[in-house]
Structures are given as structure tokens and as C-alpha cells.
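Customer escalation, tier 2.

The customer says the design service returned an amino acid string that "doesn't look like it belongs to this structure." They asked us to rerun it and document both sides in this ticket. The original C-alpha cells are below, unchanged.
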């Protein structure tokens, strides 16, 4: 067991369908299809899903994110999305609404939305070649900070404060193959990843 895909936060989970705007859902599915085509989002041989994406909800720090364990799905429906309403990094707690729990990477996504109102979308992918090429070349989190943990969230927060993430993409040092990109839209975040592709 590699620990991939397993939720590490303490959830406060309301099992209701979130009110996802049709345009938001369409954008998520459009970009998600391109991520799947590149092999950056999908399912590992052991059946565990990998990769996720999120979009800010209105003007708040809340966001819609692909649900945990949805990497195998061809298309997302509102039942496959979670709304992250609140994140308490210090106590490793997260409040979300959805028929599926928010992705294991939700705490990481939350840091970006809290940091800047200009960030409206975040993408987490698995890309072995990109990870190997850009490890310690692009901003890289500590190898000791595991995915989905407060340690990872705090490390990203420091990178953002030091303006070390101006390229819009970072390598997750403690999460082999993991990279995170952000932008004003999912399309912009995807384009940043595409431009770094080997």
C-alpha cells in the first residue's frame, strides 16, 4: 500500500449534492478530459484514483473539487463534486458538502484560494517525467511533507508568501510524481502544465 488517494484530514462531511453551476461543471470536465488524455489524472493499477482539480466558488475562499476516488470516471456529475466550505489547517480538519468526500488534496488546494483572490483554479496531477525534470528546479516542497497534510499546506503557504510560486506550478517533493498548478482559470492552470511538458 503506497498511501495514495487516502484522506488524511478529519472530515466534517454533509452528504448532500452541492449546488454546482453548469458552467463550472462543464469547465471542470473539459479540463479534466485533457488531463486524462495526458495521463496526469486517472487510476493506478491498484484501483486508486489520482489527480484532482478545483474551482473557486464565487468570491469566497470556498471551492468545488473533484471528489475522492473519482479518477476512474469519464465525466463528473454534481454527485462527484464536493464543496469545501471551511479548512482548519492547524487542526487538520475540513468541512465539505457532497455525496462524495472532498479529495485528499483539498487542504493543499485551500491554501491557494486563501492566499490570493486572483487564484480561481488549482490542479494537482501525477506526471513522472515532469516531476523528475523539475524536482528542485521549480519550487519544490520538502520531501518530508506528505500529500494532503498540514505540513504540505504550510510549506506551500511559505512558498507563496516568498513569491516563489510566480511560475504558477510547483513540485511536491514528498509526493513522487505530484505537481500542482494554479491560475485565474482551470484553462490557464492547464496551459501552465502543458508548457512545462517534456
Amino acid at each position: 500500500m503506497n498511501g495514495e488517494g487516502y484522506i488524511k484530514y478529519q472530515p466534517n462531511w454533509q452528504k448532500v449534492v452541492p449546488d454546482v453551476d453548469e458552467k463550472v461543471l462543464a469547465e471542470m470536465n473539459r479540463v479534466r478530459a485533457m488531463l486524462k488524455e495526458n495521463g496526469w489524472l486517472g487510476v493506478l493499477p491498484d484501483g486508486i484514483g489520482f489527480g484532482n482539480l478545483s474551482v473557486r466558488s464565487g468570491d469566497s475562499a470556498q471551492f468545488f473539487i473533484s471528489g475522492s476516488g473519482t479518477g476512474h470516471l469519464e465525466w463528473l456529475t454534481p454527485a462527484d463534486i464536493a464543496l469545501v466550505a471551511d479548512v482548519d489547517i492547524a487542526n487538520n480538519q475540513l468541512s465539505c458538502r457532497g455525496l462524495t468526500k472532498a479529495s485528499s488534496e483539498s487542504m493543499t488546494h485551500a491554501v491557494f484560494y486563501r492566499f490570493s483572490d486572483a487564484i480561481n483554479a488549482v490542479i494537482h496531477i501525477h506526471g513522472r517525467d515532469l516531476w523528475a525534470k523539475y524536482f528542485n528546479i521549480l519550487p519544490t516542497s520538502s520531501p518530508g511533507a506528505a500529500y494532503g497534510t498540514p505540513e504540505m499546506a504550510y510549506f506551500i503557504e511559505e512558498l507563496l508568501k516568498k513569491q516563489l510560486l510566480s511560475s504558477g506550478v510547483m513540485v511536491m517533493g514528498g509526493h513522487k510524481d505530484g505537481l500542482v498548478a494554479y491560475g485565474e482559470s482551470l484553462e490557464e492552470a492547464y496551459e501552465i502544465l502543458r508548457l512545462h511538458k517534456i
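Tier 2 assessment: The sequence is consistent with the input. Residues 66 and 81 are 5 Å apart (CA to CA). DSSP finds five helices and ten strands in the chain. Sent an explanation to the customer and offered a walkthrough call.
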